[in-house]
Design brief:
Two copies of one chain form a homodimer. By secondary structure, chain A is of the alpha+beta class. Chain A contains eight helices and 14 strands. Chain A is globular and about 55 Å long. At the A-B interface, α1, β1, β2, β5 and α3 of A face α1, β1, β2, β5 and α3 of B.
């Protein structure tokens, strides 16, 4: 974690060629943000389109509903700890949970490449149903399209979710305040490294398993215990570093981290060092940060640790006032460095 | 329209190779139904997953909401009368409308192929916003993924929609009754032939334009005028013939059509004859059938014709009791033929 973030050869970022889509436009970094600003926000406006958060909250007939959509293009389809099906369910449930919503319904849409084995498709849909059952969520409608061989890549899955907010809180990055504490629910980097190892056929002493998991129940526990999180954010593309940078920018604050408090397992650390990755930027699919008022931090930590998805929870940092938003991290010997946002992506097609 | 439906060389249907996805699995015919039954219904169960209708209705906090999802893989992206963006908005709005819902919110998710020109993406998102504005629908959240060159095809768009039912009616195929009348809102086959002509670089005397259009307002007019449609169905993949066959099967009835009453423009007729297509099976994106009780047919026709999207409305047939579900059509000289469902697809990637 002491190395500077590196871009792999897989996603070069040419300097003067922004008229075409690059892999790095999908990486959760500054290039994706620029694309969102230049294209999507220009067209769709800034009304209810909330790009600074994982899901959007709308009012329908007096109910506050959260909506979110995600397409999954992960490669390989099956990896230690999950597959594109369970990931598509967890990912969308987690985005709903980041608004504090109870997930209710999912839609599922498939873009299949000609020649894809139907047995593998069945394995994926079974996995989706199992993941949905575990979260008491229903898959209520779907769609199937088929494209010619060579015009897709096995299968892409879109899941779109609807959840209900059963509380009056407004959980979003803009509510972050100086002195708020930052908590994380466990070790980082496992999803990205599990997929990477599978993709590249790497073998380590112990198999690294993806952390892919649903986070809604953990979040609902926090709310039921009377905690008032100012912001929740799951740590997918771009990892912890990108999520914290987005939050700092949205709230206009500085976030101060202690490296020693950020959990990373030894095997993930070793794999990252070998491959030249920084775990701070590696995607997770079952990890979130919880930003709570200072005085609620200990209780939040206790509630998180008592939940299966938060056993490894830690307080990793604090929010501070700042003239310009940034994320700083103090390392083990007391030196402080800026944790920047990447422009592109370390690992393409990680979700 | 007197020719038998033909399968083009583009989508052969091998007899003994159903372990892999074929293009015809995406065609809206019997092979797609088999895939839905063998894979999706097997995994997802038959709870709220309503495969016999375009959108699903769920209850949330006392409100009846319609949900629907659609991925769009149409080729080419731009065609006379529309593009993948306007189509993605109209298609999903129309699916909501088929439950009698007022469309409220859309999500938009993009799978981009590396190298896709950003200017074309902007043209598509602008078109989406224009179509959404015209329907008073908001695009509230989105997602972007990028895949390597050769692993996608320019851009795939998923739109998922949420609408609200402001009436107590239950509009679905199972409510179809003998003696009900079948109405259509205009001429058939234009979307499919417009896309086909563009794709193949064909030129006709007059340019055939897609019928792509939003149908929610027309449907809401019908409901506001006190009409009680038993079923509504838009005529996308598989065209009028597939939609009527699905409805007949779901309701266990016979549907009797008069060929002379089904509107087809001369240019579509000519293009279909030249290319060996049957307009009954060609996809539409702004056409629906309305099934109403016999005594409401004239009023429904009048309401439809007074709306911009129903100027060419016609009563095209009637529901009859039957031992086994089927669709029959009487041609201009009085002969009757069975209008079967195709197994595969005439035109791949039409939506």
């Amino acid at each position: 974690m002491t190395t500077q973030p590196k871009l792999t050869a897989a996603c070069p970022v040419p300097k003067n060629d922004y008229d075409k889509i690059l892999l790095s436009h999908g990486g959760g970094g500054t290039m994706m943000h620029k694309l969102i600003n230049d294209v999507f926000l220009q067209s769709f406006g800034t009304g209810d389109l909330n790009t600074q958060h994982d899901s959007t909250v709308v009012d329908i007939s007096g109910a506050r509903l959260a909506l979110t959509t995600d397409s999954f293009v992960i490669k390989p389809l099956f990896f230690p700890g999950g597959d594109i099906g369970s990931l598509a369910v967890h990912g969308t449930i987690n985005d709903l949970a980041m608004s504090g919503a109870r997930p209710l319904y999912l839609t599922a849409s498939f873009i299949l490449e000609e020649g894809f084995p139907i047995q593998e498709l069945k394995r994926i849909t079974d996995s989706m149903q199992k993941a949905a059952d575990a979260c008491h969520v229903q898959i209520v409608t779907g769609d199937t399209k088929v494209v010619e061989k060579g015009k897709g890549d096995s299968v892409f899955v879109n899941t779109t979710g609807v959840g209900i907010l059963e509380h009056a809180q407004n959980i979003c990055p803009k509510r972050i305040r100086p002195n708020d504490k930052i908590l994380i629910n466990g070790d980082i980097g496992r999803h990205g490294m599990a997929v990477m190892a599978q993709r590249e056929g790497l073998e380590f002493d112990t198999e690294i398993k993806s952390d892919s998991a649903p986070l809604a129940d953990l979040v609902i526990n926090l709310l039921n215990e009377g905690l008032e999180p100012h912001c929740l954010r799951d740590l997918t593309r771009g990892g912890l570093a990108s999520a914290l940078n987005e939050m700092a920018a949205a709230a206009g604050v500085m976030i101060s981290l202690k490296e020693a408090d950020i959990p990373v397992t030894e095997d993930v650390k070793a794999a990252c060092e070998m491959l030249g990755f920084d775990p701070l930027y590696v995607a997770n699919e079952g990890r979130l940060v919880v930003v709570v008022p200072d005085h609620q931090a200990d209780k939040a930590l206790c509630v998180m640790r008592s939940h299966a998805q938060g056993k490894g929870a830690m307080i990793i940092g604090q929010v501070k006032e700042a003239d310009s938003p940034m994320v700083l991290m103090q390392n083990q010997i007391g030196a402080t460095r800026v944790v920047d946002m990447l422009s592109g992506e370390q690992l393409p097609r990680i979700c």
